[in-house]
Amino acid sequence: xxxxxxxxxxxxxxxxxFTISRGSKTEAEVICCMIxxxxxxxxxxxxxxxxxxxxxxxxxxxxxxxxxxxxxxxDRGGLxxxxxxxxxxxxxxxxxxxxxxxxxxxxxxxxxxAAPRAITTAYTLSLGTPEAMAAQAAANAAxxxxxxxxxxxxxxxxxxxxxxxxxxxxxxxxxxxxxxDDNIEANLAAAAxxxxxLIEQPLPAGQDEILRRIDHAVPICADESVHEAADLEKLRxxxxxxxxKLDKAGGLTAAILLRNKARELGLSIMVGCMVxxxxxxxxxxxxxxxxxxxxLDGPLLLARDRSPGLVYQGSIVSPPEPALWG
Length: 326
Description:
Blueprint (H helix, E strand, L loop, with lengths): L3 E17 L2 E15 L2 E7 L9 H10 L1 H5 L4 H7 L4 H18 L14 E2 L2 E3 L4 H10 L5 E5 L5 H11 L4 E5 L9 H10 L4 E3 L19 E3 L18 E4 L1 H4 L2 H13 L3 E4 L6 H10 L5 E2 L17 E2 L2 E2 L9
Parallel strand pairs: 5-6, 6-7, 7-8, 8-9, 9-10, 10-11, 11-12
Antiparallel strand pairs: 1-2, 2-3, 4-14, 13-14
Pfam families: MR_MLE_C, MR_MLE_N
Family: Belongs to the mandelate racemase/muconate lactonizing enzyme family.
EC number: 5.1.1.-
């Protein structure tokens, strides 16, 4: 029996504006893939990311290249060999996981983790003035983990303002490649003084050799510098942790390989996300069960999520129900 593939572009409004060092956005643009076989269907979602040269059009085109192979029942291993890491492979890989779960009657978590539990996710604060970021932090000061977007001038003032406004929250800083060799040591020292837990990708990918020579006063996490397991060897000695995102790795299958290799190398694990819906977060919640840091707040940043969605209670996110995924 052949499989059918449905590909849809979808847009979900963001609550307000989401700003990082590279720009702002007011909606999440996602691609949803549905793979059907007989009476069963599986879904997966991806978020094309321009930082990696992806657009909605290019990702859909990449998906269409393998339509015939999917119709002839290509499995996840074949998909891993046929497509490069990236958003297109992620949507298809996650759809195949969901389809396999529906057809077998076995939940997807059996291939990823033990019985999944609710986990604590970070909540992201957009880049802004120190005063604006302090206001965001104060409004979310009850959350146990905040992820703070920085990456420009006056970052030390921003960090101080956020810490003062949310003194009981653990804080991750995400510079999105916005620091330089000239300011990284001063910024790291300030972050250490203020008790920051982790710093994501302070320098541009490929321009981070200084990390081998300077003191890591706060653990440093690779994001844009790592996509899949093959990237890890060249990062040894540069980073203390890796941020695993399904859209970068190219699906849950590749993300598991990346997680396992990172653990072998003694790296801490963060499981993160692009700004997407609960469908994109669902497989990542399973991957994140034993992660050191979790950043799966995409639906919390939206004005409207898909239904049914993940259940969030404050910063606690529960595993997905089969009606959503897996």
